[in-house]
Amino acid sequence: MKVAKRYKIGLFIPCYIDQFYPQVGIATLELLRKLGQDVHYPLEQTCCGQPLANSGAEDDAKAVYRNFVRNFSEFDYVVTPSGSCAYHVREHYDILEQSEDVVKVRRCTYELCEFIADVLKVDDLKINYPHRVGVHQSCHGLRGLKLGNPSELISASYSKVISLLEKAEGIELIKLDREDECCGFGGTFSIFEPAVSARMGRDRVDDHIRNNAEIITATDMSCLMHLEGIIKRNNKSIKVVHIAEILNSNTL
Amino acid sequence: MRSHSERAALFLKDQNRVTWHDETLWIVRKKRDKAAAAVKEWEELREKASQVKEYVLSDLAYLLLEFEKNATQNGAVVHWAADADEFNRIVLEIINSKSAHNIVKSKSMLTEECGLNHYLEEHGIDIVDTDLGERIIQFRNEPPSHIVLPAIHLKKEDIGELFHEKLGTERGSTDPQYLTRAARAHLREKFVNAQVALTGVNFAVAENGSVVVCTNEGNADMGVHSAPVQIHCMGIEKIIPKMEHLGIFTRLLARNATGQPITTYTSHYMTPKVNGEMHIIIVDNGRTERLASRDYRDALKCIRCGACMNTCPVYRRSGGHSYGFTIPGPIGTILAPHSLPGKIVYKDLPAASSLCMSCSNVCPVKIGIHEQIYKLRQELIRKGYGSLVKRVVLKISGFVFSKPHLYDLSGKMVRIALKKLPRALIYNRVNTWGLERELPDVPVQSFKEWYRQNESNK
What we know:
The complex is a heterodimer. By secondary structure, chain A is an alpha/beta fold.
């Protein structure tokens, strides 16, 4: 696969992916390598700090932010299979002193699909994926990183995520009744507001099932972890697969 | 007092009603999308509206005085109220000065905020809400559950039952047209006998001292035209500089609220009627303090369209009453007093959001609602409002996440615990995740362990 340039990339694997979904990290690593990138995984990394900050403990998160910057300041780009973490680094590391390293890390942190589309400018990953797939557009990627145009805004239609998927051979992208409604994960929202969160999750799963999807995919495993929890509890047959795993099922 | 999550859980017990509530409001959201999309300069309009409000907030004192001067010249009497108590007192004084007892009121969230109805009722005044939805909840002695659709939590069956009891409609009848006619007949009588008419204000135009009220039922006009005394109540932030700015807002308001191109009635009030009186009460009630705060000032731009409620996935499933504040939903969460001395602190509300950002995207004046909710969360923890357990857990997590080895070790311990412990121990009451969800399966290795084993030496 020909790409414009070989970059030195710091791979950030979010804490919950590290602990519970290593296959998503592996798929991301493999995919970036197939795309000719020089990928490094700094071993001292932990978390972007979002779980703390979203709960109101920004002050306690600062040390976590600094650890992140320490680990990733040497790379051309920081790439992560999570829109939410990338958004957090870009948007909320503003409370740190804006040293050269902090500014660079904030500017160079990318969600995986965004990196492929905007930096590598690859639009066809030669994927073969003969499945009926529903794309759950995770909010922080969609509305925070602007990976697509959210349905509320009156603007031209685009999606960096769907563009990568729709060229896959055999894939059938299903249309949802509500194209970009929140799944109800919301980080610690899922813990502090369990009843609303679970109901939102059930509605999201039902939308996919009603429209005959086999697989729910997303840029964020956190949304999928929540939806998977709902699916398993309710014994549904639909599956969740992170987008990195789909994009990595290619013949590059 | 119950928290939002507890009240939401109660609302969610009736899953069918939640489905209906969610779908009804989603239809309104879709109508809004369609109406907005029909205006090709929609996003430009939002930007303009936001900028006009930005100017208003930056020059509010001057604009208010200009409005007062022009309104006074028009023959209106302008009153200033620092807080809810003073506002209520002024209204009562005007009513008493006319020895009036029958008051009709069209929709005003400000009077809800100030608790005017209860205050007047305590003083023996009969105040009737004339907006149909407002009348319904007044009959039920409930606060509104939505700022534009106050009775949206009720189904037509609920209304049928209520009107049978209050208005003597046929038992079991739920035909909307029949019920609306009964309400109309009831309200006509109230209008005819009204001595004072109260209205809210959507926009107050500084350059000519007029107030603009938007309704769909014409009830503001019915009241003002039949009662000799009219009182218009407004928060200090309702000012717009000039008439030429009004169109920006009227084009946005109804489209964003309900998907209509414009409200059925857009009433301009400028001068008192012959032999009548026109009063305008300008209310602060905490707004100046907000104006002074850098982080939360923008919330004063709100034009009360309610679109953030209709789009909010939490609001649609938890119902307006779950917020416990006069204004529910995302905008209510940031408008609810949270740091004003001596006020109730709605400390549970900032958690009642998944931070999906849809609210900020529909907001016609581009308030960064989700950003303010995020900031409020920080403020609450800094001020020590979080539970001790929550604060300790956050402190420990902050420590663990900042120490790579401790993080690796803790991760491993959690995974071992999840693997080894019996299900009954893991799925306990404290584990709110597990109430309606499974935890993820535990993998053999973390990514980092896999990487160390397979990649480190490459």
